[in-house]
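== Folding task for one protein ==

=== Format: two labelled lines per protein ===

==== Paired sequence and structure tokens ====
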Amino acid sequence: MKIDHSGFLKGVHFIPSPNVDERPPEMPIRLLVIHSISLPPQQFGGDGVIQFFTNRLDPAVDPYYTVIKDLRVSAHFLIRRDGETIQFASCNLRAWHAGQSEWNGRIRCNDFAIGVELEGSDYVAFEDAQYDTLAELTQAIREIYPIQEIVGHADIASGRKTDPGPFFDWARYRGAVE
């Protein structure tokens, strides 16, 4: 895997999200945030996440969609259960994945973070293919950006978020990237 200087990962499907904007000037990317998501909740493989990140969620499909239909969120990448990677925003842009967040005393983590969503939940283990792809993607990101720390969404939005959840194997992941 390789990310070019415009912030795009070569060879993956790009679906542009409107939920991005410019990062603040002179704001180096220092943080990689790992998330998990499934839409509808606990269901994998459909287009719910893509529709959510592109503001095309149909509330008639699932009752939960009526709760989140007006949210405007995105991430830079989504890694599906089979390891397929979809990109929604250039890494050089600010994706809206962290929300209210804080890391090492700095607020608004979206300003200086790249967000990677894993298709998953707090109730099921992640797939081998996801760990393999995430490790490769992490290396590609580190080749271009001065990442200082890798954290879960729960680490920067304590009390508000739980992802990537208790089934994410941090030791396995860190062993693959360090």
Notes: Residues 78 and 117 are 5 Å apart (CA to CA). The domain at 13-177 is CATH 3.40.80.10 (Lysozyme-like). The chain has a mean pLDDT of 97. The two ends are 17 Å apart (CA to CA).
